[in-house]
Amino acid sequence: MSEPKTIVITGASDGIGAAAARRLHADGHRVVVVGRSPAKTEAVAQELGVEHHVADFARFAEVRDLAAALDAAHPRIDVLVNNAGGIFGDRAKTEDGFEKTVQVNHLSPFLLTTLLMDTLLVSRASVIQTSSSGARLFGDLRLEDLDHDAAFTPHKAYGTAKLENILFTRELHARFHARGLSAAAFHPGAVATAFATESSSFFRLVYKNPLGRMVMVSPEKGARQLVWLATAEPGAEWESGAYYERGKPARRVNPQATDDDLARRLWDRSAELVGVQTA
């Protein structure tokens, strides 16, 4: 095996995040698990004997504390996996004043990544985003209304947030690849997890239905692309800035996902909203 990597995985207390943590740890990598649930996150960490952190991405203060803790503990981070996210129920604002879906799925991962940027650049790291084909099916990004004040549905908010993951990946590549950073987003497939249990959308019915779960893949299978992107060599085995489905750059995407100007403007707007200065 190549040199072990330090790999930070958010959303690692369950589902594909936990499955990826188990696989990567078994392969000899130094895994750091991050989750929202103290009990579930600690259970995964104790099972593997690894470091863990608890952070609720609906609170920017906890994301900032997480970034400070990771920075203090790790002079090198080889891979940051922004896997935390989800689809929620009726429209709700966080204590920071943002619609919960956009904050948990996009703004908080953006904040964490930018706060860790110095370490990531020194490490020539890879940043991996767990996105979704929902970006193509439901995403409709309007920079003047990131909170969906004009028109909200749970699946539209989720699809748009997953589109933002792809655009964030694209802009990470544009801004930092020349300085050694690589980035990719991926769709894990329909995975039989606790996804959508907090949602009032039709996704909740699909994921609770035994017939629906019969055609879904296991968390272990859903985690395969994540594990591959975390361990394979960017530039040689995968393309930085790309969005992957089934191990290949996706051929069918939301037209907004390839708009470089939109990616740049989303970055600038996100930085303004979370209160960070970026290159």
Automatic annotation (TrEMBL):
UniProt KW keywords: Oxidoreductase
| Family matches, as SUPFAM superfamilies | NAD(P)-binding Rossmann-fold domains
GO molecular function: any one?
oxidoreductase activity
Note the InterPro entries from the entry.
NAD(P)-bd_dom_sf, SDR_fam
Q: What is this protein called?
A: SDR family NAD(P)-dependent oxidoreductase
